Amino acid sequence: MSKITLYIATTLDGKIARKDGGLDWLFALANPNQIDHGYADFLKSIGTTIMGKNTYNEILGFGVDWPYLGMNSYVVTTDKEFKSTTPDTFIVATNLANFVNDLKKKNEKDIWLIGGGQLIASFLDNDLLDTMILTLIPTTIGEGIPLFPEIPKETTWTLANVERFETGVVNLTYDKK
User: Fold this and answer.
1) Which structural domains are found in the chain, ordered by start?
2) How far is the C-alpha of 19 from the C-alpha of 24, rounded, in Å?
3) Sequential DSSP letters for 114-138
4) Which one of 5, 62, 91, 157 is most buried, counting C-beta atoms within 10 A?
5) Which residues touch 106 (CB under 8 Å, ≥6 apart)?
């Protein structure tokens, strides 16, 4: 059975985006050697993505080709009018816990929970998240969208790995206890 992994960049003050969804702080990181901070290796383990509607729209706003070709992507939304415009992208409006548990049984590769914050909290509240890889970016932005915008239920995590990069970025990997 596959596992669900949250792999997400966050600021030191726990923000995943500016209030308007902007990620300029992430792209402003000095990275002269173009280090990918483990992204390529992580992506090799993934067969499916899950994200919220705002995250989906933010990715489309980057003005690049859809980065998840060859894998199924699911957009979780309560907006009955919402339509995807990318290949192999499906809308999830049913019971999230049942859908995710079925998806875990059907997939050979792991599933990436991309974001956003409300969806992350929902996954935590429903015990759907197995691993978190938090890419800690050495900046603070003050106001913004918090990693956990709603207070998810208490869950204990075990630190599984720490990876430090010359950019000052640190990947913290936690497994659910």
Assistant:
1) 4-132+144-155 (3.40.430.10)
2) 12
3) EE-HHHHHHHHHTT---EEEEEEES
4) 5
5) none
Query: Do residues 144 and 19 make contact, with C-beta atoms less than 8 angstroms apart?
Result: yes
Give the residues across from 93 on adjacent strands.
none
Contacts of 41 (CB under 8 A, 6+ apart): none
Strands 72-76 and 110-115: unpaired
What is the C-alpha separation between 133 and 172, in angstroms, rounded? 6
pLDDT per position as a tens digit, 31-67: 999 999 999 999 999 999 999 999 999 899 888 899 9
- In the 8-state DSSP scheme, what is residue 79? -
